[in-house]
Amino acid sequence: VVDGPEELRKAVRNEIKYGSDWIKLLVSGAFMTAGDNPQNVHFSKEELEVAVDEASRRDVPVMAHAHSAASIKMSIRAGARSIEHGSFLDDEGIQLMKEKGTYLIPTLTIGKWFLEFNENSQALSKAIELTKKHRVGIEAMLGKAIKSGVKVVVGSDLTGTQPGYHANEFSELVRVGMSPMQAIKAGTSLAAEALGKKDQFGILAPGMLADIVAVKGDPVADINLLKDVRFVMKDGKVIVRK
User: Fold this and answer.
1) Nearest to residue 176, comparing CAs of 125, 226, 151, 141?
2) Which end of the chain is more exposed for a tag (fewer CB within 10 A), N or C?
């Protein structure tokens, strides 16, 4: 928790000192956090600019947790590499993303997880209510962003859930407007590009890390096949073979 540009500068330096290779800023409120509003903006323009400047001088990218339209646009203008969630994206935000090359990580599966597996959870009641209220509008704007050419990337927002959770994001992106191949790239080559690691992984090519999964069938014909992985290779070593 920081207040003011100089506290932000010090916090970013401290994170980098201890090995953080990304800086994540909670620029807006959240769906899951008690006592705040995802439509609120948590940082001033000056604070955001200082944080991004400090990280950039050390070649460390910044990701911005941003739900509200205002927080999304402030983060893009300040130089964040990616927007996490981007729930209330508007037309101006879409245009800014295209101009700046900002990546959008919509994390759709978390909403599905709320509604299908946790609908009666008291702890998640705020997130469930907001998801039910805004899901249609969120997905409509995401579809528009995809169609406009915004660089949309697969992200999970959650770990440790039931098998297939992470792979479901591919199916969700197809549901809102991506082609299966676009979705596959969103989780491989484009994701590697967003991470600044496109020379290490994300495609099948000589010299790249041999991190490979295989499925039975053609995921371009049926994206849901990615939920049933039959083969996993990590660093050239076979981990799973069904």
Assistant:
1) 141
2) N
Q: Which helix (H) or strand (E) holds 229?
A: strand 229-234
Among residues 71, 69, 29, 76, the alpha carbon closest in space to that of 52 is found at: 76
Q: Are 57 and 68 in contact (CB under 8 A)?
A: no
Q: Is 64 exposed, middle or buried (0-12, 13-18, 19+ CB in 10 A)?
A: buried
pTM, entire model: 0.94
Clarify whether 222 is annotated catalytic: no
Are the C-beta atoms of residues 168 and 227 closer than 8 Å to each other? yes
The catalytic position among 24, 98, 126, 227 is 24
Neighbours of 133 (CB within 10 A): 10
Q: Please indicate whether residue 36 is annotated as part of the active site.
A: no
Q: Of 73, 151, 157, 185, which residue is the catalytic one?
A: 157
pLDDT in tens, 3-58: 999 999 999 999 999 999 999 999 999 998 888 999 999 999 999 999 999 999 99
CB 42 within 8 A of CB 27: yes
